[in-house]
């Protein structure tokens, strides 16, 4: 399996200030862990980190699943290239197919212009060659989304994870935790999704599966849970603190404001945090996913994305629309960090979340 993040040595830090006290009272700071040892008010369990494997066959298996998952999207686009000549009808069909795949009007126009220009410059005459040109043009558009998640520059690296209900947010946190553990990172989970019933229990299941610690409070305030988790992560020397925030729609302004509060409170526990703010979006929702990205970015200034449920959808082209938005955002606000797609998902198993690779995705989409 390919390594999905870059490790950095922590920068020289100033003399440590006295640790901020945890809010009081702070009941149930961690869920009980079999075999753990009590330290203060927190129950700590030793974690056995598995040795990561990097066999190319594992990645090839993943690419095969990606290709299969994107079949519904790819079939509608690839069907355009079954003719015998390159003519205006081909371009019109390609435009319709890209729009049906939810690439959006902007990304569709960009790709069509690129394909037309490259066809003219290269002098190709067969539609199959146009398909190869489209694959290269799509790869070029998506390439800026292909960035590594950096862990280790800060300790702990605090990652806030947001997303609407049903996008696969909590499940993605569980899968991401497994990736981190496989790479040798120690992880602490924060059950700050106190808005949805049973969300804490769901995250505790993932903590058990991955043998990592969790900070939670039954019925607690999400910001207080987040503060506790970051403080505990610093005290215990964790590499990563993953904060599961409540799912909400961008139109629920009072709940979106709560996200701002969590971000502010996290920065009180660690003045450099949060270091990553990742949005989980459902690939099935097409252009609505792009609307979510824009809305959450306005509130939180996103640093990365996880795109789930790409298997079985006919709307995989939405990544092209996201790529064009990211390009325009970078031009409009040069001071902001880029918003890459760190991971994409094509299933429910732990191994069904993997790093995003622009060429792999383009080739799988247009296979």
TrEMBL record:
It is found in: Cell membrane; Cytoplasm. Keywords: Cell membrane, Cytoplasm, GTP-binding, Hydrolase, Membrane, Nucleotide-binding, Receptor. The keyword Endoplasmic reticulum does not apply. It catalyses: GTP + H2O = GDP + phosphate + H(+). This is Signal recognition particle receptor FtsY. It is an enzyme of class 3 (hydrolase). Involved in targeting and insertion of nascent membrane proteins into the cytoplasmic membrane. Acts as a receptor for the complex formed by the signal recognition particle (SRP) and the ribosome-nascent chain (RNC). Interaction with SRP-RNC leads to the transfer of the RNC complex to the Sec translocase for insertion into the membrane, the hydrolysis of GTP by both Ffh and FtsY, and the dissociation of the SRP-FtsY complex into the individual components. It holds the Pfam family SRP54. GO terms for cellular component: cytoplasm; plasma membrane. Transmembrane segments: none annotated. Its main location: membrane. The keyword Membrane applies. GTP binds at residues 163-170, 244-248, 308-311. One of its GO terms (biological process) is SRP-dependent cotranslational protein targeting to membrane.
């Amino acid at each position: 399996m390919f390594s999905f993040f870059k490790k950095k040595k922590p920068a020289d830090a100033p003399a440590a200030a006295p640790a901020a006290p945890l809010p009081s009272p702070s009941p149930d700071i961690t869920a009980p862990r079999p075999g753990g040892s009590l330290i203060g008010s927190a129950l700590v369990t030793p974690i056995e980190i598995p040795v990561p494997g990097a066999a190319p066959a594992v990645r090839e298996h993943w690419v095969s699943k990606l290709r299969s998952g994107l079949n519904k999207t790819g079939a509608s686009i690839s069907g355009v290239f079954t003719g015998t000549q390159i003519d205006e009808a081909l371009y019109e069909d390609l435009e319709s197919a890209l729009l049906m795949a939810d690439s959006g009007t902007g990304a569709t126009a960009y790709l069509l212009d690129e394909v037309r220009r490259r066809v003219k410059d290269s002098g190709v005459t067969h539609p199959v060659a146009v398909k190869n040109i489209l694959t290269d043009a799509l790869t070029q558009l998506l390439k800026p989304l292909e960035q590594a998640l950096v862990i280790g520059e800060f300790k702990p690296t605090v990652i806030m994870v947001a997303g609407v209900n049903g996008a696969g947010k909590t499940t993605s946190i569980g899968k991401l935790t497994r990736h981190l553990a496989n790479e040798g990172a120690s992880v602490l989970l924060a059950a700050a999704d106190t808005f949805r019933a049973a969300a804490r229990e769901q995250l505790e299941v993932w903590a058990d599966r991955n043998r990592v610690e969790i900070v939670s409070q039954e019925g607690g305030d999400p910001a207080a849970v987040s503060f506790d988790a970051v403080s505990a992560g610093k005290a215990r020397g964790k590499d990563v603190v993953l904060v599961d925030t409540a799912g909400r729609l961008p139109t629920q302004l009072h709940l979106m404001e709560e996200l701002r509060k969590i971000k502010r409170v996290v920065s009180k526990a660690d003045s450099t945090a949060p270091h990553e703010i990742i949005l989980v979006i459902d690939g099935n929702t097409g252009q609505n996913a792009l609307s979510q990205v824009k809305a959450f970015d306005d509130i939180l200034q996103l640093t990365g994305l996880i795109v789930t449920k790409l298997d079985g959808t006919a709307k995989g082209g939405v990544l092209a629309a996201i790529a064009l938005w990211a390009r325009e955002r970078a031009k409009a606000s040069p001071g902001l960090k880029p918003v890459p797609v760190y991971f994409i998902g094509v299933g429910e198993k732990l191994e069904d979340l993997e790093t995003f690779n622009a060429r792999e995705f383009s080739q799988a989409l247009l296979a």
